[in-house]
Design a protein that fits this description.
Blueprint lengths: L23 H13 L6 H8 L10 H18 L2
């Protein structure tokens, strides 16, 4: 890697990454509200769609940096 190039790197964050097709950031917050409210009309539907292991509070710097790793590799490959 080029030492003069700034590559993406996550240093901190909060909350899980919004799932695909949830409606972006506003949809994510609606989803979080619905799965937290047992009486919400979409609660069970969204829980079924997300699966039991989805935790909207989960965040991992290491996981985010793993997702960014291909960008670092792409940057390196494009300079060859």
């Amino acid at each position: 890697m080029d030492p003069n190039t700034k590559y993406p790197l996550c240093m901190d964050g909060q909350l899980a990454c919004p799932p695909e097709d949830c409606g972006g950031i506003p949809g994510f917050y609606d989803l979080v509200e619905a799965i937290a409210d047992l009486n919400h009309e979409q609660h069970q539907e969204l829980k079924d769609w997300l699966g039991d292991d989805f935790d909207p509070e989960a965040f991992s710097v290491d996981s985010v940096n793993q997702m960014l790793l291909p960008m670092r590799r792409l940057g390196k490959a494009s300079r060859k």
